[in-house]
Amino acid sequence: MEKIQFKCELLSDIVLNDSSATEGKRRSLDFIPGNNFLGIVAAQLYKKTDDTAWDIFHSGHVRFGDAHPSANGKRGLRIPASIFHPKLKGMETGCYIHHLTKQNDDIRAMQLKQCREGFYIYDQNKLATQVVVHKDFAIKSAYDSDMRRAKDSQMFGYEALCKGLIMYFTVEVEDEAKQYKEDIIKALCGHHHIGRSRSAQYGWVKITESPFEEIATTQQSIQIKGKQYLTVYADSRLIFLDKNGNNTFQPSTRDLGIEDDDAEIDWALSQIRTFQYAPWNYKRQAFDTDRCGIEKGSVFLVRTSAGVPPEKTVGYYKNEGFGHIIYNPVFLQGDEDGLSLFKFSKQKETVSICQATEVNSSLIQFLKKKKKDAEDQNIIIKEVNKFVEQNKKLFSQDLFASQWGSIRALAMAYNDEEKLKKVIGCEEPENPEKEQKKVIKCDKKKEPEKKQGYIVHGVAAEKWNECGRRKVLEDFLKNPQFKGHLQEAVINLASEMAKICKS
Questions:
Q1: What is the mean pLDDT of the chain?
Q2: Domains and CATH numbers, the chain
Q3: pTM for this one?
Q4: C-alpha radius of gyration, the chain, whole number
Q5: Which of 286, 308, 490, 285 is nearest to 403 (CA)?
Q6: Phi, psi of 492 (to 5 degrees)
Q7: Are 144 and 150 in contact (CB under 8 A)?
Q8: Which of 226, 254, 228 is nearest to 242 (CA)?
């Protein structure tokens, strides 16, 4: 068998839905399944006139692997389901291997949480670094070609992997199909479209033949409570069938490639996750039957005295990227307490792959205005509540209930902020020094000019001047945070204070 390594560079965003659902939020896969590369080759080499189609696509002699996110020339691997970290701490503080962890009081106090998301690369210095995978979400509308406009009630969204991401995958070619090696390389290399909405702005990738570093394995089995075990890590999704041809989530040891009649899977130590989806057949324009199996990242613990088998693929649909497993990977090693020998961290970013762009549209402007109004509303509520709490004792008399009702009526009638202050009686003079001189020069026999405003004249003026009631109201109206929203602030204040006075 010969492995051919490839690099897949995303030249645009790509959409790879993780389910066949037509409603709700549709998430994108964070890897490219091998059947996408099988489709690229099939579009060029699938012929009915010779045996090429059978040998490449149906015999199982050619297997197209999944493309995983990468960093530093290394192909990333899905975080093993056997990796746990303390619930209230990050992975950087240390991770534990499930099947190696001792169940004592100290471990239970940590409340270990399973790691499920993300791809990591592993180096020789025992460092595990998460590969950053950016995703974007866009709202689309179905197009009516007859009316030449967007269809009514046909809005939907796409979550996509952002352009710029580098991914690696392999194609395994058995000796029976090695005569097609160069044809496969030629068909794969170049620019192609994959995923959904390929006729629009999505799905443009560049594939080149490129070597990359793969994960190392250990040949020595692990010991757990005096028994010898072999770890089986699912590098890709696994699909198994029982003797009746039905999907099963409980494969046998032989299904996992272990040729030992006495071997047994320890389900208590294993960490298994499952998946289910219906693949889309582009040729027939229909969904194929549901695929059910073991999710990548799952870990089997097999009790066996046999040695470590060679790396292989197992199960069904191996030509589409399913069935690749790794025996005894180095990242599932731990110390005597179960603490992982690898230190986990996130990839440091220098430049963001997916940069936000300013979108100028009526919808965006409307949403920005709604956000600003909500923020202003919160300020008004906060300041009104503050005023009520600090000054409710000043206005405890029932007399002021009608006063506040009148102020509310004035506020509803005047939306101009300066006029509103004037009719209430809290308008500041334009030139205080001039007003003072005017009063001094006034004839003593003549009464000073009466001030305008509801709270500064009439029978209630005296009550408003007592205990600084007028002053606290003036301070409220002068609040610069109410600029542009003074009318709303006064209406809210008057309503709340009227309730206080009546209670």
A1: 82
A2: 2-209 (3.30.70), 222-328 (2.60.40.4350), 362-502 (no CATH)
A3: 0.66
A4: 36
A5: 490
A6: -65, -45
A7: yes
A8: 254
